[in-house]
Amino acid sequence: MKQRFESIAKEYEKSLYAQAVKRLMDPMDAQDAVQETFLKAWLHFEKLSECDYIGPWLMRVLINECISMQRRRQSRQRLYDAAMRAGWHENAFDDGLVSRIDIDRALTQIDESKQALLKYYWFGGCSIAKIAQLTGHSRPAVYAQIDRGRRKLRQMIG
What we know:
Blueprint: H1 2-24, H2 27-43, H3 45-48, H4 54-85, H5 100-109, H6 112-123, H7 128-135, H8 139-157
Helix pairs in contact: 1-2, 1-4, 2-4, 6-8, 7-8
Protein backbone atom coordinates (compact mmCIF):
# COMPACT_ATOMS: atom_id res chain seq x y z
CA MET A 1 0.00 0.00 0.00
CA LYS A 2 2.80 2.41 0.90
CA GLN A 3 4.57 1.83 -2.43
CA ARG A 4 1.36 2.36 -4.38
CA PHE A 5 0.74 5.63 -2.53
CA GLU A 6 4.31 6.79 -3.17
CA SER A 7 3.98 6.05 -6.89
CA ILE A 8 0.70 7.98 -7.05
CA ALA A 9 2.25 10.88 -5.13
CA LYS A 10 5.20 11.00 -7.54
CA GLU A 11 2.87 10.82 -10.53
CA TYR A 12 0.66 13.74 -9.46
CA GLU A 13 2.99 15.89 -7.36
CA LYS A 14 4.17 18.20 -10.16
CA SER A 15 0.74 18.83 -11.65
CA LEU A 16 -0.77 19.46 -8.21
CA TYR A 17 2.05 21.83 -7.30
CA ALA A 18 1.68 23.73 -10.59
CA GLN A 19 -2.05 24.13 -10.01
CA ALA A 20 -1.48 25.28 -6.42
CA VAL A 21 1.11 27.89 -7.45
CA LYS A 22 -1.26 29.13 -10.14
CA ARG A 23 -4.09 29.51 -7.62
CA LEU A 24 -2.16 30.76 -4.57
CA MET A 25 0.64 32.72 -6.28
CA ASP A 26 3.02 31.67 -3.51
CA PRO A 27 5.40 28.69 -3.77
CA MET A 28 5.49 28.09 -0.01
CA ASP A 29 1.70 28.11 0.31
CA ALA A 30 1.52 25.87 -2.75
CA GLN A 31 3.80 23.33 -1.08
CA ASP A 32 1.61 23.41 2.04
CA ALA A 33 -1.51 22.87 -0.06
CA VAL A 34 0.04 19.89 -1.84
CA GLN A 35 1.16 18.38 1.47
CA GLU A 36 -2.35 18.78 2.92
CA THR A 37 -3.76 17.16 -0.20
CA PHE A 38 -1.48 14.15 0.12
CA LEU A 39 -2.23 13.88 3.83
CA LYS A 40 -5.94 13.70 3.07
CA ALA A 41 -5.26 11.22 0.30
CA TRP A 42 -3.28 9.02 2.68
CA LEU A 43 -6.08 9.11 5.24
CA HIS A 44 -8.59 7.96 2.60
CA PHE A 45 -6.22 5.81 0.57
CA GLU A 46 -7.87 2.46 1.30
CA LYS A 47 -11.09 3.68 -0.32
CA LEU A 48 -9.29 5.45 -3.15
CA SER A 49 -6.76 2.81 -4.08
CA GLU A 50 -9.42 0.81 -5.92
CA CYS A 51 -10.76 3.79 -7.86
CA ASP A 52 -9.95 4.95 -11.34
CA TYR A 53 -10.44 8.61 -10.47
CA ILE A 54 -7.57 9.27 -8.05
CA GLY A 55 -6.17 12.09 -10.21
CA PRO A 56 -9.38 14.11 -10.40
CA TRP A 57 -10.05 13.42 -6.71
CA LEU A 58 -6.60 14.73 -5.76
CA MET A 59 -7.13 17.82 -7.91
CA ARG A 60 -10.51 18.54 -6.29
CA VAL A 61 -9.01 18.15 -2.79
CA LEU A 62 -6.16 20.47 -3.76
CA ILE A 63 -8.51 23.10 -5.16
CA ASN A 64 -10.61 22.98 -1.98
CA GLU A 65 -7.45 23.33 0.12
CA CYS A 66 -6.35 26.34 -1.97
CA ILE A 67 -9.75 27.96 -1.50
CA SER A 68 -9.51 27.40 2.26
CA MET A 69 -6.04 28.91 2.35
CA GLN A 70 -7.22 31.94 0.38
CA ARG A 71 -10.12 32.44 2.80
CA ARG A 72 -7.78 32.26 5.79
CA ARG A 73 -5.48 34.75 4.08
CA GLN A 74 -8.40 37.12 3.44
CA SER A 75 -9.56 36.75 7.03
CA ARG A 76 -6.09 37.67 8.30
CA GLN A 77 -6.07 40.67 5.97
CA ARG A 78 -9.48 41.85 7.23
CA LEU A 79 -8.25 41.47 10.80
CA TYR A 80 -5.12 43.45 10.00
CA ASP A 81 -7.15 46.18 8.27
CA ALA A 82 -9.54 46.34 11.23
CA ALA A 83 -6.66 46.72 13.65
CA MET A 84 -5.19 49.54 11.56
CA ARG A 85 -8.56 51.33 11.56
CA ALA A 86 -8.68 50.85 15.33
CA GLY A 87 -5.43 52.75 15.63
CA TRP A 88 -2.99 49.93 16.38
CA HIS A 89 0.45 50.46 14.94
CA GLU A 90 1.42 48.75 11.71
CA ASN A 91 3.75 46.14 13.23
CA ALA A 92 1.48 45.09 16.10
CA PHE A 93 0.80 41.69 14.55
CA ASP A 94 4.40 41.08 13.48
CA ASP A 95 5.71 42.12 16.91
CA GLY A 96 3.33 39.67 18.56
CA LEU A 97 1.64 42.47 20.48
CA VAL A 98 -1.78 41.76 19.05
CA SER A 99 -3.10 38.37 18.01
CA ARG A 100 -6.42 37.16 16.73
CA ILE A 101 -6.98 35.57 20.13
CA ASP A 102 -6.40 38.91 21.88
CA ILE A 103 -8.94 40.64 19.66
CA ASP A 104 -11.52 37.86 19.97
CA ARG A 105 -11.11 37.76 23.74
CA ALA A 106 -11.38 41.54 23.99
CA LEU A 107 -14.47 41.64 21.77
CA THR A 108 -16.27 39.19 24.04
CA GLN A 109 -15.64 41.47 27.02
CA ILE A 110 -17.41 44.52 25.65
CA ASP A 111 -21.17 44.80 25.59
CA GLU A 112 -22.99 43.06 22.78
CA SER A 113 -24.33 46.19 21.08
CA LYS A 114 -20.83 47.67 20.63
CA GLN A 115 -19.50 44.25 19.70
CA ALA A 116 -22.06 43.86 16.91
CA LEU A 117 -21.41 47.37 15.57
CA LEU A 118 -17.64 46.82 15.55
CA LYS A 119 -18.05 43.52 13.72
CA TYR A 120 -20.31 45.15 11.12
CA TYR A 121 -17.84 47.99 10.68
CA TRP A 122 -14.52 46.12 10.74
CA PHE A 123 -15.23 42.63 9.50
CA GLY A 124 -18.39 43.21 7.51
CA GLY A 125 -17.00 46.26 5.76
CA CYS A 126 -20.21 48.22 6.37
CA SER A 127 -20.19 51.99 6.38
CA ILE A 128 -21.53 54.03 9.30
CA ALA A 129 -24.55 54.93 7.15
CA LYS A 130 -25.25 51.28 6.31
CA ILE A 131 -24.96 50.23 9.96
CA ALA A 132 -27.31 53.05 10.97
CA GLN A 133 -29.79 51.84 8.38
CA LEU A 134 -29.49 48.20 9.53
CA THR A 135 -29.83 48.99 13.23
CA GLY A 136 -32.32 51.85 13.03
CA HIS A 137 -29.99 54.19 14.95
CA SER A 138 -28.80 57.60 13.81
CA ARG A 139 -25.39 57.95 12.15
CA PRO A 140 -23.94 60.00 15.02
CA ALA A 141 -25.14 57.38 17.54
CA VAL A 142 -23.56 54.56 15.53
CA TYR A 143 -20.32 56.51 15.15
CA ALA A 144 -20.20 57.23 18.87
CA GLN A 145 -20.80 53.58 19.79
CA ILE A 146 -18.11 52.37 17.37
CA ASP A 147 -15.68 54.97 18.67
CA ARG A 148 -16.35 53.98 22.30
CA GLY A 149 -15.96 50.30 21.45
CA ARG A 150 -12.73 50.96 19.56
CA ARG A 151 -11.30 52.93 22.49
CA LYS A 152 -12.30 50.21 24.95
CA LEU A 153 -10.64 47.54 22.79
CA ARG A 154 -7.51 49.64 22.50
CA GLN A 155 -7.37 49.94 26.31
CA MET A 156 -7.89 46.21 26.78
CA ILE A 157 -5.30 45.11 24.24
CA GLY A 158 -2.84 47.92 24.66
